[in-house]
Amino acid sequence: MDPLVASLKVAASGLEAQSTRIRIVSENLANARSTGDAPGADPFRRKTVTFASELDRATGASLVQVERLGEDEGQFSTEYDPGNPAADEQGMVKMPNVNMLVEMADMREANRSYEANLQSIKQSRDLISATIDLLRASQ
Q1: Nearest one of 74, 70, 69 to 99, comparing CA atoms
Q2: Is the CB of residue 76 less than 8 Å from the CB of residue 99?
Q3: 18, 63, 78, 79: which is deepest, by most CB within 10 A?
Q4: Cα four-point dihedral sign 34, 37, 43, 48
Q5: d(CA 120, CA 138)
Q6: What is residue 5's predicted lDDT score, i.e. its pLDDT?
Q7: Alpha carbon 96 to chain centroid distance?
Q8: How far apart are CA 7 and CA 39, in angstroms?
Q9: Contact by Cβ (8 Å): 94, 75
Q10: CA–CA distance from 84 to each of 29, 39, 51, 99 (Å)?
Q11: pLDDT per position in the chain (139 positions), as tens?
Q12: Separation CA 10–CA 120 (nearest Å)
């Protein structure tokens, strides 16, 4: 298979994987303060994305794919908030195990990776167009 087409497939798989990652990070950020709905209930649990490499038999290229979506089994923190419906008898509320700094770093990394894959697609497209132009000019 043409190496330019293979590079398009690799970059497209990267775009799809990073798009999923950005969606999961956004969900984590949106639920960073989502507590349970009853006293002692568990709050939102941070979601994670695991990637895997997959060989594309048609092109021989290694593509990235989302292997699985999981949950972070880390500890919940607690805050004193006696007015919260999820507060226990001591007024303590379990808070999600979402660290805003980690999520923002993940978002930035995923965004940059997405942009790099997009740039790779643009470069491949430009090279394909230049090749077509050369072929037309030589006829």
Answers
A1: 74
A2: no
A3: 18
A4: negative
A5: 27
A6: 85
A7: 19
A8: 52
A9: no
A10: 20, 9, 37, 21
A11: 688 888 999 999 999 999 999 999 999 999 999 999 999 889 999 999 999 999 988 878 899 999 999 999 999 999 999 999 999 999 999 999 999 999 999 999 999 999 999 999 999 999 999 999 999 988 7
A12: 9
SS3 83: coil
Query: Tokens 């949950």 identify what position?
Result: 71
* Predicted model pTM: 0.86
Tell me which residue has tokens 């209930």: 41
52: amino acid identity, one letter: A
Q: Measured between alpha carbons, how far apart are the two ends of the chain, in Å? A: 24
DSSP H helices in the chain: 3-30, 100-137
The amino acid at residue 9 is K
